[in-house]
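hey so u asked for the seq, here:
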Amino acid sequence: MTEVSSLTGRLLVATPALADPNFDRAVVLLLDHDEEGSLGVVLNRPTPVGVADILAPWASLAGEPGVVFQGGPVSLDSALGVAVVPGGLSGEGGVPSVDSGARPRDDGAEMAGVPAADRADVQSGDEPLGWRRVHGAIGLVDLEAPPELLAAVLGSLRIFAGYAGWGPGQLEDELVEGAWYVVESEPGDVSSPDPERLWRAVLRRQRNELAMVATYPDDPSLN
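ran it, structure tokens below
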């Protein structure tokens, strides 16, 4: 099989030509992409269900709007947590192990503002237990872990029901067909307080012809 260049951590932005209603004007954060397939979550599909209704312990850490988002059409009965941990995280884009056995550090300056009781829960490199890096400051949260492990270091948290998945080569075929624009993600995309406008916002910030696509009407027949 031809080697796949990983797009993990980047955004898939639905083109106006994408006909699948599951992904109309969708902005998808890719959490995993390799020769075995791809997995991501749709960032701009808020539901009416509050986080407190299904994952009460995490509700106080969820950003506004404090609702569950529909991450995609696959496994809607499962939940994924995506969180931003700001600061000088070490490592280059890889996914660190959260059970590597590395001893936590407590060197004062690095841990300023983190309660002493929580310092033992932060690993070397400021990578907290219960959080697994996907790309930069964006990572996946172990929703079965105690929220207190992350409360002191979490910048934002979003809960998703379900995810978007592609089999081997499927996403690549869709890219060739022109179904998606691929752009860089920003940590703020995960926690946008106005997710319904995220599609236009992501396109508008591009420094190329994609910025013009942001003006594409919701109903082309009215243009």
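The longest strand covers residues 74-84. The helical segments are 51-54, 116-119, 148-151, 170-176, 187-190, 198-204, 210-213.
lmk if thats what u needed
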